[in-house]
Amino acid sequence: MPRLKKLAGAILTLAGVGVVAGWMLSAPTKVDPQVIAAAGPGDAARGERIFNAGGCASCHAKPGSKDAGQLELTGGLALKTPFGTFVAPNISQHGKDGIGLWSREDFANAMLKGVSPSGEHLYPAFPYTSYARMKPADVADLYAFMQTLPAVSGKADGHSLAFPFNVRRGIGLWKRLYLGSDPVVALPDGTPEPVVAGRYLVEGPGHCGECHTPRNFAGGSDKVRWLAGAPAAEGEGIVPNITSGEGGIGEWSEGDIANYLETGFTPDFDSVGGAMVEVQKNMAKLTPEDRAAIAAYLKAIPPHPNGYPPRKPATN
Question: 74, 150, 197, 258: least buried by Cβ within 10 Å?
Answer without folding.
Answer: 150
